[in-house]
Each structure stands twice: as C-alpha cells, then as structure tokens.
Amino acid sequence: MTTFSNIKISALGNFRFRRMKNGYIVSNDCGDWAYLPGRNFSRFLEGGITAGEKIYKELTEKQFIRPDRKKLADQASKYLLLHSSSYSRGTRLFIVVLTLRCNHRCLYCQSTPEKPNADGVDMSEVTAKKTLDLIFQSPSPSIAIEFQGVEPLLNWPVLEYMVRYAEELAKIKRKNLSVNLVSNLTLLDDEKIQFLLDHGVSISCSLDGPAEVHDKNRPYLGKGGSYAHVLRQIQRLNRAIKQKRADANGRFVDELNAITTISKFSLPFGKEIIDEYVRLGFSNIFLRPLSPFGLIQKTYDLIGCTAKEFIPFYLKALDYILDLNSRGTFIVERNAYYALCKILKNVDPAYYELRDPCGAGIGQMAFNFDGAIYTCDEGRMAARMGHDNFRIGDVSSSRFNELIDHDVTKTMCVASCLDNHAGCADCVYKPYCGVCPLVHYMEYGTIFPQISATDQCKIKIAMFDYLFSKITTPKMKVIFERWLERPALFQ
Fold this sequence. Notes:
This protein has 491 residues and is α/β, with parallel strands linked by helices. It contains 18 helices and 14 strands.
C-alpha cells in the first residue's frame, strides 16, 4: 500500500494518477503520460528517482519531475494541440436533416422516423438555401456538412441542390469544404452514386453485422430483409469507388465507412460482426453502444444493454481485433482510434464525444428540416422527444454570432467542461476524455449528473484502462502506432 506522507511537492509537476494491475499511470493536462511500476511510483512520490535513471529523463522531459517554468510555452502549445478542435476559429461541423422520413424502422433509431410517404417533413429548397447562407457565416476556414435524415436520400433533389450550392459558397468564401452523407443506402442508384463521387461526397452507412443481427436491429419496410439490401449496395459502392480511384489515377477517394450499433441482439456475435466487416473489405469498424434518444425509449426492454453488458463485449471485440492485426489483417476500431490519437500522438481528432468541452454550438450545430437550429444533433433528437430545450435559433431570423452567443450554447459549454464535474477534474484520463450533456439530460434529467455513476463514464474508463494496459506491451503498441499511420480514413 502506498502512503503519501513523504511527497516532496516542490519537486513534482502537475499530475493525476490511476492504479493499474502492476503499477500506475500518471498523466498531466498536456496529455503527457508515463507508466510507473508500483515501486517506481512510490519512489516518484518520495523524490527517490534520481538523475541517470532512464525513467528520470522521461519524467523530467514530461514535466512530472522538476517542472521548468522556461518550458511553460511548450506545455501551453501541447495543451492547445490536444484541444485544437475545442479552441478552433469557429464552428466547423454542421448536421443538416433533410427529412424525417425513412424506409426502415431500426429498433434503436435516434431520430424518431416518419413513414416514407409522410407529408410536411422534408427540407425545402428555400430553407436549404437559408441554411447554407447561415452556415457559411462561420469564421472557420473549414466547413464540414453532414447530411442526415432520418433517410436523406428520400429528399434527393434538395441534397443535390445543397451540394452544388455549398461548392459555390466555398469558392466565394474561400473555405475548405467536406461533405458526408449518412444513409441506409437502399435508394442509391448509379446516377446518384456518380454524382456523389464526382462531387467528393464521402458516404457512411450502418452495418450491424451478419444478417442474423442486422435484420433484427434494422427492420426494412420494403420487400426482403434490410441486410440483403445493404450488402448489395455496399458491394456496388465499393466497385464504384474502386473505379473512381482508377479514373483519378490513384488519387485518394474516401472509402465507404460503416457504423455498428450494439444492441442486446449483438452481444453474442462480436467475432461474427468483425469477420463480416473484414470479409467486405472494411479497414475500420465503429462499435457504438446504444444512445438514449428516439425509439430506444420504447424498445429498451427488447434490445437494451447496460454498460455492465456492453463492456465485456467491447473488450473481447478489441482482443479479437488486435489478434487479427497481429496475424496480418489490418482493421481499426474507431472509438479506440480516436482515443489513441490523443494518447500516442497528442493530437485532437475532433471526435466530439472525446472533446473538452464537447463543442455543442461552438464546434457543431444541427439544422432541422424546418429551419430550426440546435446546439448539436443530439439536441435536435431531444426536441423530437418533446425536450426542445436546446434550440438556439432559426435560419429565417438568426445571425451566426447570435447562435454562438446564445445562453444555451454557453450552458452546454460549461456543462461539457470536465473541470466542472466532480470526479472528472482529477481523473487520470481527463486529457483524453469528454462528456455529452445531452446524454446525461436524457438519462438522468440533468446536465450535471454524478459522472462516475453514468454508463457513459464506465464505458470510457473501461476503454482507457484497456488501451493503457496494452500500450505498455511493445507488440500491441506497434499495432496501435500502425493504426495511426492512416489518419485519412477518418477525416
């Protein structure tokens, strides 16, 4: 047992610590970290690590021992790099909801879908123009637009119009533009695929694994199972992307990305889900737990799984993914990837669930089909469930500076700052973590819950514990570093 009565405070820099199986992890606000076996941790606290030891050099370079005020500017630069998306030059990501209609009824759908033939739930071209005019008021030099629906391809004419108009505005405003489409893919045809690839639109879909899992999670309202449809379209898109790369003389063209949402049905099939991704040629997989928005409020008893159930599934899946990598099959798990960007490279991947603050309003905004503006897509989802607390404006009447200066935007910034939460401020994983106030609000009725008691926290702690336990193994660290050599996959 370690005691702290002999700590030599003047010799130590800023640090937090957590006990691991055979030692301790220490970290600081700049994202630097070190692994100290138990005896070395005691010596560290007692001032017993001396010059000439290898660990002494590491700890002094990272300012854990004998902090040097002359290096304060270097530490400040590292801190800003680690949080660069939180302290950027303006809101960059804009979620645009083109319609509430959908031809699926996914049991966990976050968006509370309408029927495919519903009226009055599509974004009009007039609203689309106002949306883009407002988006391009952002001072950010880069604009990322993500089209969602429920199923955005059901409003194809407006999607096509917005892509073309966004390109015009990007040239006029001299901004870097990236566009992403999130779709179930069922309505794609050759003409639409050609348009999307010609205009550099990246595409994301949902694939929950083999048919046995996918069809249970994602019922299709048309003929046949949803798995058969998405499988056919994935193969079709991959052929088109391959041809596009060939036509572009090898220049990079975004690969198709897919997301897996883990329900109770998924838990027995971790290996099969990963094997399905490998079989279809994906180089990454995104294993997401359920969120508390949308239809899950009605279907939780059927498909819900707690952190206690999700964590063993996720860690076992990571074991299998690392085993595949060690045997020559390259595949990345994206939650882990985003965390490792911070841990191993000290860079911010702009992944909003690991931002501090989260970026609601100041990093992203969501524009609903009717022109209502929310701090984030989760705020828009909450509104669909009767909680319209996170609306910050409307495209017909708001100016961009008013959205940033809105009281709700400020409140979300405060509520997602880890220094404002007991347990987060002194957590060893604080430099790499983030919280979502909207998840807290929907699950606990407050944006300031006891974080350590939340499923969100338990899952992230389990992931960080796992990653740090593996990083200390040279063979595993090499695999992680290989993952980070391909950042273009997730821009």
